[in-house]
Each structure stands twice: as C-alpha cells, then as structure tokens.
C-alpha cells in the first residue's frame, strides 16, 4: 500500500516548454539603419516603464542592440519618446 502512494499519476502528461530560437529581426528583415524618428517602431524595444529591453529578451544581435539603444536615446532627447512613464503600451 505505501508503495502505491509514492507513485505520481498525471491526468495529462506534464508539459515541457520548448524554447523558440531567438533571432535578430533586423538581420532577418535586412534592415541596415534604425531610424530614431520612428517612435512606434522603437516602442517595441521598450517596456511599460520606458526602459530599453535587453538582448536576452528581444533576441536582437549586439550590433543592432547598440543601434537601437542609440536611436531610443536620440528619440528621448527630441521628446519623441519619454524617459520615464507609467503604462507606455
């Protein structure tokens, strides 16, 4: 009896999360220049507080992450994007 209680039974098989391969959307789309004047595009790389998302979340390559961060900083300087906010999206 005690041996039967130690067995764990699942109604559904336990789900194993499969990680999607991260890719650089700039290399995939062939984008060479990140435009700082396109605020709607740059908002994809910001979280709700207006912080720049890291590479490990977006999958952006180092080369384009630097270009994105520079474009976001320029857009903030020209008041196209806020420095700090609540619920940006």
TrEMBL record:
GO terms for cellular component: cytosolic small ribosomal subunit. The keyword Glycosyltransferase does not apply. One of its GO terms (molecular function) is structural constituent of ribosome. The keyword Coiled coil does not apply. GO terms for biological process: translation. Keywords: Ribonucleoprotein, Ribosomal protein, RNA-binding, rRNA-binding. Belongs to the bacterial ribosomal protein bS18 family. This is 30S ribosomal protein S18. The lineage of its organism: unclassified sequences, metagenomes, ecological metagenomes. The gene is rpsR_35.
């Amino acid at each position: 009896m005690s041996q039967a209680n130690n067995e764990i039974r699942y109604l559904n098989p336990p789900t194993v999360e499969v990680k999607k391969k991260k890719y650089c959307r700039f290399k995939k789309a062939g984008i060479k220049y990140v435009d700082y004047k396109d605020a709607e595009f740059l908002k994809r790389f910001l979280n709700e507080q207006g912080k720049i998302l890291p590479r490990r979340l977006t999958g952006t390559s180092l080369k384009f992450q630097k270009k994105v961060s520079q474009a976001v900083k320029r857009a903030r300087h020209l008041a196209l994007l806020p420095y700090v906010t609540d619920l940006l999206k």
